């Protein structure tokens, strides 16, 4: 069995040795593109003069909005989102008449090398008339300055998530506590920035694209350009991380494709780091309201307003946030009386995309802050408050107030087990002793229940070659996680075969029949399960071929570890494969589209921090105890906890995309502090498997986002323990602590 073992990643040599091929490494004769970007957050474009830029040696073209025709603008992700609930404009590749955020692309410059392109960008003269900018969400709500005139308001989404009887809950409360909780704006920052190469030749469009969703991109390019999808190929080469942000399709990407079509020559663009910082900003929302609690610390009701910043345009994935955050605010707790008005507003800031956890970190931070606030206000212990409120195992399956069905879980059991295993109580005692000696040490815990897996389906194909090798074509699109290795493990186990005979491929619309992709921690559940089911079908086909070869009925054939046997005779896996091709048997392959469902991983995480006299916070330890169902590869899963927890350190204390009142991003990569190995804590991670019926045959629940979902809440709680102060926002900065 490979499942459950820390098998080394199968295809990592090239990454370790610098031999991987990202979009920017692809050798193809193509023009380079670059963008003229708005220096203002809100302004009218009076005129654009490109004549100077065209004089630069090597410049081929400069296109503005009027030059780049698309059939339709950029839309939203209709797999998960209902356009009817939204006020939005389908965004065109380049700004026309008006710019709405600093960095918005106004013109695309195309040339034979990137250096001339850089020079020419400086020589495009745009005459702007500045307009007042609205940068803060609360101001945008007032609609004094309207960002999209045709919408007549900045409020894009306004829905109320209401369940139970919240009036009653507040009437019966022993205590009502006001709360205000903010997640500030972040930048996902994958190591590889955006990249795209578009080639349009002979009526066929080929796009090499740093994406998580090649098939969605193909459909969207087809819709946007009016080119049949049969004539579009999207290829995902090696991807240097994405963290959810590469589900989005950028106007820059669309501009590059439009230019390639117009010029009849390939065009390429790789974002600079500062462009990447504009392309993918994420989070930023505030919950303001009040909670009703009983004397024993039971959370009886939550009411209030959730305000979600969209930035200047609606991206593919932004609509998820104001819907998922309120639905997951109840989390693992019994609270049923909730009334949350959820609004999303446009502001003159870079558009918000998705970042690891996408909405569940926000929901978790809000509900875990609420639990800690209850503990503080009622002078109860953090654990006690959770114990009082957690849904019990005998209440499973449990339908949350907004209709999400938690099919199973033993939250209380895991909480108790986990805190013991992680030595939470000992650490608490130790921290208290250290504080008496003058050190500011603190220990914090947080619990989470997240939703992952996200159906609706995933694709998997398994093919046996005439040499007996196994090709797995997955709809998953791993881009750093190593999930391809887990898929190979699952297939090798199903076929009882050496994992070295298995090759997993993905991410090319002409190789993979269809796919949803990798996001929402769904690949070990959805994609690996589709591959598992396909492998089972293939094994049945191999048995039938073996029966022919052995000249027996298929019922007589038994199979074990690469050998088929019947009546004392044996044939090998490879012999059967060769036979099936040579004897005109139907091809040994299976394609499966597996319908899927959501999964609900949960766990408890503990952080230990030390704060120095300057308010500098060091996260010393990060400990995790999670139920992620069947663990396919503990090394990979643990890696996810380490990576996610490191990003949680960033979100909790270091990273913030600060935008000033003029709408300027005032941080650069130099002072947008992404944690490195130096800031990373010492890790400890445990996985437990509690029985859980799951839509997915691998039995796996997701782990790819868990530590970033719960980590900020645990770390902030530890800082509170260390300092005795209270923080209801991320990040907590030295100036907040001192
Ligand atoms: N795994 C396992 N057993 C389980 C669950 C998962 O062994 N029960 C392993 C898998 O084999 C895989 C990893 O853990 O190697 C994560 O699997 P899963 O939870 O299914 O998540 P996905 O493969 O779908 O990855 C997506 C997830 C998301 S949504 C974001 S955001 C994120 C993350 O992965 N972005 C990442 N981790 C990232 N890691 C890297 N290096 N780069 C990114 O961009
Ligand atoms: Mo994600």
UniProtKB/TrEMBL annotation:
Superkingdom in the source lineage: Archaea
Ranges of residues in domain Aldehyde oxidase/xanthine dehydrogenase a/b hammerhead: 17-132
Listed InterPro entries: Ald_Oxase/Xan_DH_a/b, Ald_Oxase/Xan_DH_a/b_sf, Ald_Oxase/xanthine_DH-like, AldOxase/xan_DH_MoCoBD1, AldOxase/xan_DH_MoCoBD2, AldOxase/xan_DH_Mopterin-bd_sf, Glyceraldehyde_dh-related
GO MF, any single term: oxidoreductase activity
SUPFAM superfamilies: CO dehydrogenase molybdoprotein N-domain-like (SSF54665), Molybdenum cofactor-binding domain (SSF56003)
Key words, A-Z: Molybdenum, Oxidoreductase
Pfam families xref list: Ald_Xan_dh_C, MoCoBD_1, MoCoBD_2
NCBIfam families: glyceraldDH_alpha (NF041018)
Protein name: Molybdopterin-dependent oxidoreductase
């Amino acid at each position: 069995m490979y499942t459950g073992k820390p098998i080394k990643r199968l295809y990592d040599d090239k990454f370790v040795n610098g031999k991987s091929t990202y979009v920017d490494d692809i050798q193809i004769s193509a023009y380079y593109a670059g963008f003229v970007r708005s220096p203002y957050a809100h302004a009218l474009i009076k005129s654009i003069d490109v004549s100077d830029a065209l004089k630069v040696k090597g410049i081929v073209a400069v296109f503005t909005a009027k030059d780049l025709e698309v059939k339709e603008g950029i839309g939203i992700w209709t797999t998960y989102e209902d356009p009817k609930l939204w006020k939005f404009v389908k965004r065109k590749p380049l700004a026309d008449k008006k710019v709405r955020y600093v960095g918005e692309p106004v013109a695309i410059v195309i040339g034979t090398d990137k250096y001339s392109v850089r020079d020419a960008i400086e020589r495009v003269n745009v005459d702007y008339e500045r307009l007042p900018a609205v940068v803060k969400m609360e101001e945008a709500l007032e609609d004094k300055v309207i960002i999209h005139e045709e919408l007549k308001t900045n409020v894009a989404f306004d829905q109320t998530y209401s369940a139970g009887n919240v009036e009653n809950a507040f009437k019966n409360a022993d205590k009502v506590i006001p709360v205000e909780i903010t997640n500030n704006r972040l930048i996902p920052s994958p190591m590889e920035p955006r990249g795209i190469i578009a080639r349009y030749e002979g009526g066929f469009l080929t796009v090499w694209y740093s994406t998580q969703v090649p098939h969605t991109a193909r459909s969207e390019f087809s819709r946007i350009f009016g080119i049949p999808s049969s004539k579009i190929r999207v290829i995902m080469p090696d991807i240097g991380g994405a963290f959810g942000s590469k589900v989005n399709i950028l106007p820059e990407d669309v501009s590059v494709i439009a230019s390639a079509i117009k010029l009849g020559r390939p065009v390429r663009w790789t974002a600079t780091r500062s462009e990447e910082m504009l392309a993918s900003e994420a989070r930023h929302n505030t919950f303001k309201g009040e909670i009703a609690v009983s004397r024993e610390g039971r959370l009886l009701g939550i009411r209030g307003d959730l305000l979600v910043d969209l930035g200047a345009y609606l991206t593919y994935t932004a609509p998820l946030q104001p819907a998922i955050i309120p639905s997951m605010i109840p989390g693992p707790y019994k609270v049923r009386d909730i009334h949350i008005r959820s609004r999303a507003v446009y502001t003159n800031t870079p558009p918000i995309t998705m970042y690891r956890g996408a909405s569940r970190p926000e929901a978790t931070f809000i509900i875990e802050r609420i639990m800690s606030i209850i503990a503080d206000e009622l002078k109860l212990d953090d654990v006690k408050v959770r114990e009082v409120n957690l849904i019990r195992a005998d209440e499973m399956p449990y339908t949350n107030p907004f209709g999400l069905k938690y099919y199973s879980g033993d939250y209380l059991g895991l909480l108790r087990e986990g805190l013991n295993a992680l030595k939470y109580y000992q650490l608490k005692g130790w921290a208290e002793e250290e504080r008496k000696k003058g050190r500011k040490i603190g220990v914090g815990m947080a619990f989470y229940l997240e939703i992952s897996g996200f159906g609706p389906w995933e694709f998997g194909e398994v093919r046996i070659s005439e040499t007996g090798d196994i090709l797995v074509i997955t709809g998953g699109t791993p881009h750093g996680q190593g999930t391809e290795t887990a898929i190979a493990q699952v297939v090798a186990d199903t076929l009882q075969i050496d994992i070295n005979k298995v090759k997993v491929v993905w991410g090319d619309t002409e190789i993979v029949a269809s796919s949803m992709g990798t996001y929402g921690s769904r690949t070990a559940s959805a994609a690996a399960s589709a591959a598992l089911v396909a492998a089972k079908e293939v094994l049945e086909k191999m048995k039938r071929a073996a029966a022919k070869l052995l000249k027996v009925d298929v019922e007589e054939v038994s199979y074990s570890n690469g050998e088929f046997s019947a009546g004392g005779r044996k044939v090998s896996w490879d012999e059967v494969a060769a036979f099936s091709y040579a004897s005109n048997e139907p091809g040994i392959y299976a394609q499966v589209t597996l319908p899927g469902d959501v999964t609900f991983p949960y766990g408890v995480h503990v952080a230990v921090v030390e704060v120095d006299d300057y308010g500098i916070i060091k996260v010393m330890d990060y400990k995790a105890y999670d139920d992620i169902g069947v663990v396919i590869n503990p090394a990979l899963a643990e890696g996810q906890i380490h990576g996610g927890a490191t990003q949680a350190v960033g979100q909790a204390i270091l990273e913030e995309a600060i935008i000033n009142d003029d709408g300027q991003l005032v941080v650069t990569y130099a002072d947008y502090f992404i944690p490195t190995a130096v800031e990373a804590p010492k890790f400890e991670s445990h996985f437990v498997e509690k029985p859980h019926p799951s839509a997915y045959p691998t039995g796996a629940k997701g782990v790819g986002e868990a530590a970033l979902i719960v980590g900020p809440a645990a770390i902030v709680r530890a800082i509170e323990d260390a300092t005795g102060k209270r923080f209801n926002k991320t990040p907590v900065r030295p100036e907040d602590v001192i």
